[in-house]
Amino acid sequence: MSLRKMRIGVLGTGEVGQAIATKLVELGNEVRMGSRSRDNEAARNWARSNGSLASHGTFRDAAEFGEIIFNCTNGLYSLDALKSAGYENLKGKIIIDVANAVDFSSGEPTVIMPEGKSLGERIQEAFPESKVVKTLNFVSYRLMVNPGLLGGEIDMFVSGNNKDAKQLVTSILKEWFGWRTVVDLGDIRAARAMELLVPLWFRLWENTGTDLFGFKVIIKK
Amino acid sequence: MSLRKMRIGVLGTGEVGQAIATKLVELGNEVRMGSRSRDNEAARNWARSNGSLASHGTFRDAAEFGEIIFNCTNGLYSLDALKSAGYENLKGKIIIDVANAVDFSSGEPTVIMPEGKSLGERIQEAFPESKVVKTLNFVSYRLMVNPGLLGGEIDMFVSGNNKDAKQLVTSILKEWFGWRTVVDLGDIRAARAMELLVPLWFRLWENTGTDLFGFKVIIKK
């Protein structure tokens, strides 16, 4: 599959949103970065720095604009952000959920899973007419769009209920972002396994002193 | 460090306990397998099949016997098993905690963490005079004592509060079991990150059709 250029909404103005939105523009896509308020400074600066394909607006503006949507908001507030983006604006669309809901208050980063449910699942439940694909949430924003920084040896996972959506996202990961191995973990409940990698991520970050690491699954041939 | 032979208690008679106990005997250690009752059939059969270095008894018998203790019980009942082994029999000793507390009732394997605390932490809290080291819990029992089945490329983690204990366990993992890379993730709270790998483990098992896989952390040089 060779991907055509698209209009893409990126929700969130942090390191993750900026890294993904910038890469998407570099690839020739039209990207609108969404945030809580229309005059968000980070979003305005990003749009100003990234040429005519880059624009910014509210969550709603970005969701209306995008044919597909990246959720790069803080996972603790993602459901609120997506609700303010508007159910109708997300209907039928792929939501690529990169977010993590992490509580740092105890000192040990804790993934929030009300009733055992991952953020990816909760988004899919709240937006049943959208196609949620969980991915990228367990690597540094620096590797998300450039895994080749490590020599391209690391694996990425996807999970979600819609096969076509996972297929498109897999193509985006491979053709646009440079991932070589993308493993389909199954339905959206597998987002639990992906979000629960975050505590290990933080321990390894502390331990290695760098955020430039990833995981390779070695399977018996 | 070259390890001397030891007396070792292995709590639990399942696949994990059998694999570890058998390997330890093969290496020339005296091993007592412990279970709830003295006449446990699996333990009796194991002892009968493994020669004069192998014996069996209650959790208490095995804990009294061992200079170090492997907890290979079902994590949902590990605290009960260790309590019945006796506080005084575990005092001052290393408890190598290989167990996972997993609830399968929802269909999606769910790691049980009351108040956010891992099994490893809860054991350390219940036995403050023992030295708990969490390890091995996120690979198949077949790989625990023979990671070379995959070519030896995969990583093992340890966590725990006592550095000397982690050092000894690291030597056991390397010299006896054949692990090449053992990464110290820090204090026992890191057992959370290790236990939370279990949902991913089950998804990959389902996905790949084999339990012969492990993780390699690729770090930017």
Explain the overall architecture.
Two copies of one chain form a homodimer. Chain A is an alpha/beta fold. Chain A has helices at 15-26, 41-49, 59-65, 78-85, 87-90, 119-126, 141-144, 163-176, 191-195, 198-208, and strands at 7-11, 30-35, 54-58, 68-71, 94-97, 102-103, 110-111, 131-135, 155-160, 181-184, 213-219. In chain A, the strands form two sheets. Chain A has an eight-stranded mixed sheet, sandwiched between helices. A two-stranded antiparallel ribbon of chain A has the order 6-7. In chain A, a hairpin with a 6-residue loop joins β6 and β7. In chain A, α3 crosses α4 (78-85). The radius of gyration of chain A is 16 Å and the shape is globular. The mean pLDDT of chain A is 97. Chains A, B: This is NADP oxidoreductase coenzyme F420-dependent.
Query: Which range best describes the helical content of chain A: under 10%, 10-25%, 25-40%, 40-55%, 55-70% or over 70%?
Result: 25-40%
Helix and strand element order of chain A: EHEHEHEHHEEEHEHEHEHHE
Number of strands of chain A: 11
Oligomeric state, counting identical vs distinct chains:
homodimer
Major sheet of chain A: size, sense and barrel closure?
8 strands, mixed
Distance between the termini of chain A: 28 Å
Number of H- or I-type helical stretches of chain A: 10
- Rg for CA atoms of chain A: 16 Å
**Main β-sheet, spatial strand arrangement of chain A:** 3-2-1-4-5-8-9-10
**Backbone structural class of chain A:** alpha/beta
Second-tier CATH architecture of chain A: 3-Layer(aba) Sandwich
Domain Pyrroline-5-carboxylate reductase catalytic N-terminal (chains A, B): 7-100
InterPro entries (chains A, B): NAD(P)-bd_dom_sf, P5C_Rdtase_cat_N, STEAP_metalloreductase
GO molecular function, one term (chains A, B): oxidoreductase activity
Keywords (chains A, B): Oxidoreductase
